[in-house]
Amino acid sequence: MDGKLYEAAITGNVSQLHELLREDANILDRLLFGGAVRENPLHIAARFGHSNFVREISSRKLEFARESNSQGRCPLHVASERGHVEVVKVLLERDADVCFVRDGEGRTPLHMAAMRGRLKVLEELVRVRPTAAWVPTDQGDPILHLCVNHGQWEAFKMLVGSINDNNEFLKLKDRDDNTILHLLAARAEYKDVKLLVDRLKTEEGVVNSMNVNGSTALDIAKAIRTRYGRFKIRRTLRKFGAKKGKEISRNRPKNRTSSKPQLEGSSNDSQSRDKSQDALMVVAILIATVTYGGALNPPGGVWQDDKMSDCSSSQCHNSGEAIMSYNFPIIYFFYSISNTIAFLVSSILILMLVSRSSFRRRVLKRYLTVMTWIAVSSMLLTYCLSAYTLCKEDLKREFKWIVGPVIFFGWILIIALLLVSMLHFAKSLIRIIGIKRLFDWMLSLLSRSRDSEDQRASPLHSQPELQQVVTTSSS
């Protein structure tokens, strides 16, 4: 480029441009057909915001408006990135379709303005070519996604309010099938999430749209570290019918024409589930076997004879009774309870695993895990009590300082695990039935019990003869 022309473009000196054109009328033509990829005077003037110079150059050589610099950007890209709205207006007057030209990274002038937060430029571009807002980048990112990724919230709100097309603009997805709602939920932007959900409240398919990982906006909001933001966003999404990805997948009909990777993934999941079931079944059977033997043959054995005469009350016994119950009655009491708990819980585990339906629900899987903890803890407590009774007397004095705390903390652990299992079961019951239905069910039971009590307390119900007399007299 001629040095004087370059200087005129930097300063925006239109008079100097006219003087150069009088001296050499073909100076712009030589730049246009020079062949080298470089900036033309229109790029330079657009960078510095010289609208009059841009108007003069574009009126003489409109081809400059579509030429690209070393970064693949046209003058409208440069002006949009810098926020020179007057230059943008001039270029759009000359050729409005320049809005669709992409740079070397696949971005349009509208994308550049959105990434930089140039609100006035965005308004002008959308006003002249509204359809340009629908064009994604070459990487598949819609313009709203660019606004969120670059933290341009004012530009985001302006675009949401400017495009009126029955919310179709808000349904655009990126290459990972993330809607704008996914991105806002990931960034805990409660106000913007509420703004979108208010507009999309009739579009359940958008609120429950899943990305390539099968996650909805509600799933992403659940993973937010900020507890307060997560709670508010989840509450807002739930209010308008948002669901988790697993809830949607569970309600969908199975697709028999699924791809090979999906079939391989499902087979791997089923194999891992079968392995966990088999392992848990082995543990449950072992616990049931050990506790069953401990009940029939407790430590120390059982009496083999009957001795009911010529003996004190503490020495009298019947055959088949546990010797441990006479020598250590308190320890035998705790031994029997912990052994019975372990046997019953392991038996329930076996029955649930045999049915092969317990692992279909995540809540029941956790419930089975807690039950396994209870069975193992009870069996460990039973072992400690058995070991104590089998020690000789001099070791028992030292061992009791160990057995006492073990019994105490062991029972605390078992009670705590029982409470946890009950809480898990209550939560699963509430989720399945629903709080309102459960509350109505409890009220109906109370009303029925009260009605039955009233009927029993009434004199007509309690005295058949009086009821018959009243019926006869009334007739």
UniProtKB/TrEMBL annotation:
Localisation: Membrane
Keywords on record: ANK repeat, Membrane, Repeat, Transmembrane, Transmembrane helix
Predominant cellular place of this UniProt entry's protein: membrane
GO cellular component: plasma membrane
Annotated spans, Disordered: 244-275, 453-475
Record SMART domains: ANK
Keyword Transmembrane: yes
Biased composition (Polar residues): 258-270, 460-475
Annotated PGG domain residues: 274-389
InterPro entries: Ankyrin_rpt, Ankyrin_rpt-contain_sf, PGG_dom
TM helices/strands, residue ranges: 279-296, 330-355, 367-390, 402-426
Residue spans of the ANK repeats: 71-103, 105-127
Amino-acid biosynthesis found in the keyword field: no
Membrane topology label: Multi-pass membrane protein
Protein name: Ankyrin repeat-containing-like protein
Organism: Cinnamomum micranthum f. kanehirae
